[in-house]
Amino acid sequence: MTTILVTGGTGTLGRLVTERLRAGGHEVRVLSRHSRPYAVDLREGGSALDAAVTGADTVVHCATSPRGGDERAARNLIAAARRAGVGHLVYISIVGVDRVPFGYYRTKLAVERLVEDSGLGWTVLRTTQFHDLLLTFFQGMAKAPVLLLPARVKDQPVDTAEVAERLSGLARETPAGRVEDMGGPEVRTLDSLARAYLRATGRRRAVVKVPLRGAAYHGFRDGGHLTPGRAVGRRTFDEFLAERFGGAGRR
User: Fold this and answer.
1) Which helix or strand (DSSP H or E) is residue 233 part of?
2) Cα(147)–Cα(160) distance, rounded to whole angstroms?
3) Quick one: pLDDT band at residue 117, thresholds 50, 70, 90?
4) Three-class SS of residue 70?
5) How far apart are CA 105 and CA 109, in angstroms?
6) Are the C-beta atoms of residues 57 and 1 closer than 8 Å to each other?
7) What range does the domain containing 137 cover?
8) Ranges for the NAD(P)-binding domain (predicted)?
9) What per-residue confidence (pLDDT) applies to 1?
10) Residue 168: which CATH number?
11) Strand residue runs (E) in the chain
């Protein structure tokens, strides 16, 4: 039986990856800051991280923090994995990290390079944004009476469960390097996605498209985060919303 460590295993993606790996008969260790027995802050490393990694055949690295420190966390994880003789490190990244000069994307690209230079067998999967992330974004923006969106930006959201299926499959295989990108089934304007959210939730908000400045905005506007040639996802954003909110938009 293969032993697989999933970092960020209680998160939106990591939880689903863990479920699928366990269903496949693998022994799965869940690492997060508060999940015992492998409660570890990757940014700190230490003996608890060594204990979590020791004996693992594969590590699936899903952990990330909006508070920063992802590069330090990756360095600590890679060092521990090398000491433990881990055979395969799988990393989830984002389409466009090498094309859009956005701070978080730069961090993801830096971690990709750490993984590639780790000396371990490795696999990197880049995907477009998850449906869940767009939902969180729209929920936050809709707190105001006017929903402000960056003008002329499109998105290609993908279903988190489908990404989990792909990532868990890669974890069961041999190291494959950088695999083909995974994009959602539709490339749509951000305002059309926002209006779908408003309909599904029964909210009424004016949607206003605002032109912005800066290199990151231009990167998104030019579609650097999209992969229309790899629109392999099946579940659309509308289907995701319908399952999440049911008939709320018809009231």
Assistant:
1) none
2) 25
3) very high
4) helix
5) 6
6) no
7) 3-250
8) 8-132
9) 74
10) 3.40.50.720
11) 3-7, 27-31, 58-61, 88-94, 122-127, 146-150, 154-155, 177-178, 188-189, 206-210
Q: What is the per-residue burial (b if ≥16 Cβ within 10 Å, else e) of 27-52? A: ebbbbbeebeebebbbbebeebbbeb
Q: What is the crossing angle of helices 103-116 and 70-84, to 10°?
A: 10
Type of residue at 35: S
Asked if pLDDT for residue 180 goes beyond 80, the answer is yes
- The amino acid present at 69, given as its one-letter code, is G
Q: What are phi and psi of 171, to 5 degrees?
A: -65, -25
Which residues is 148 bridged to in the sheet? 208
- Following CA atoms 87, 81, 85, 11 in sequence, which dihedral angle do they give, to the nearest 10 degrees? -50
| Alpha carbons 230 and 18: distance in angstroms, whole number | 25
Single-letter amino acid, residue 96: G
The total of structural domains in the chain comes to 1
Spatial contact of 44 and 76, defined as CB atoms under 8 Å apart: yes
Cα atoms found within 13 Å of the Cα of residue 216, Cβ hemisphere only: 8
130, 157 in Cβ contact below 8 A?
yes
